[in-house]
Design goal:
- This protein is 25% helix and 6% strand.
- It is mostly helical and 109 residues long.
- The longest helix is centred in the middle third of the chain and has 11 residues.
- The chain is globular.
- It is built from three helices and two strands, in the order E-H-H-E-H.
- It has a two-stranded antiparallel sheet.
- The two termini are 26 Å apart.
Length: 109
Amino acid sequence: AHNKGGRRWHVDDASVQGFNVRWCALITMGESWHNNHHAFPGSAQLGVEPGQWDPGWWVLRILKKVKLVDDIKTPASFPGRAELRCIDENACEVGRCGNMVEAVAGSSQ
């Protein structure tokens, strides 16, 4: 997940950029959304866009509903990062990722 795959996010000054590996999402419980993890490192939700399957996130949501976990962090839990850039021109606002982060956060509810 550090060498090949898709990327939507770029973290300026990071020595390593993660890549998303779609075909591994189910067998890794969502851990293959590694570019998303580098963009939102404290988030429990790794599949942050529509169509990104994240079974680990699904399990956490169930556990939250039955009150076995709480205080789960999502991309919306964190302030914007100046070093985070959206590199997919078709999906992001021009420039920094502030509006895209809000859009991703809205899809996590």
